[in-house]
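Class prep. Protein, please:
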Amino acid sequence: MLRRLFNAFRKQDESTGVRAVTTVADLRAGDLLTLKSRLSLPEELRGITLEISQVGTYQFDDGLYMQLTLTATDRSKIYLGFKPSNHEGELCFSKPISHSVITTLFDEDQFADLFEEGFSTLTVNPDTDGYSGWLTGEYAQTKNLAVGYFFDRDMRGHGVSDRHDDDSEEFHYHELRGDDDQYEITVEVWGDGETDVSLDVYCPADVIETMWPAE
């Protein structure tokens, strides 16, 4: 499916009147992007083409951050985050992981300590098959039960208050920064008790090779 879309969008780009997509900030749902084969990217992302299937917005104390849901040909999902005011700076690629993966990658007691008072450390187990480029050896907790807000749509250009908006969903989160600053782990705890965990990798914006508009 992505291959057919890729060929169609490439033909459109050769004609006139197509929406310009020159930076990551121009991407919308339905657009495509191809990543370079850079060592700074996790192995599974190098040189592949992904479709933006959804756009969401996070709101933190320091402003808005975009979350693009990227869908691969096997229908797996990766998230791409960036700050709209600095879209040519760092990009954050995030891979969601399940509870079973958490217990494989980390010591369960160490992971449970993240939810206690204070700041914990987390050591990665040696067996990380399938997660090449997503992990570093050790993480230190930098945020504990911080508050954020999430909009399930693109809020760029909308009047959002400096703190939060009634139309958003509130959540609490923990962050851990790796011993290599390129890596991070994010734990989001939602109002219904659901907990989402992701492995995060920061990369420069030039890891994107090409972008194509949907229309």
Remarks:
- The longest strand covers residues 138-151.
- DSSP finds three helices and eleven strands in the chain.
- The chain has one domain: 2-212.
- Confidence is low (pLDDT under 50) at residues 1-14.
